[in-house]
Amino acid sequence: MAAEAEILEELQRLRARVPQLTGALAAGADGLVLAQDTPGVDPGTVAALTGTAHDLAGRLTDATGQGDFRELLVRGVYGYVATYAAGRTALLTLLAQDRVNVGRLHLEGRRAGARIGELVDAIPAPRPKPPTKTTARTTAPRARTSRTSRSKPADTREPGTETPTAPTVARTTTES
Q: pTM for the complete prediction?
């Protein structure tokens, strides 16, 4: 896929512009890797967590009236994880050392996210398969039959065997 190569080039140029970056990854909002340059880190896990963080951050911005998701910054003991919206359907996640200039990280991350978004959004969506033609019914519809009352099942015992009968209760009434 040509777009994947272009996205990877953008990630590598970004890492060259911000030397404190330790990794860069582009993922779909669904959590699937589009392109990655993340040595020492499992890109599938980072992409999946990026998708989950995006969903959660989107719910948070919606619940607080802050509008659509744009970016998310997480600071750990050893550095930063920054995620940026990249077009309509992608995300850019950057891993940076603790000593990174956060302003520069945001500036370069936003620019790269916009460029990656252009690349991803230019990819044509897969076309849905055309519906298959259904053939007309060639058999005549079943005739409707009237219902008959249910009868007792046929006696399937051998001749000569007696049927157990329930005792008969006689009722007598007296008039006064």
A: 0.69
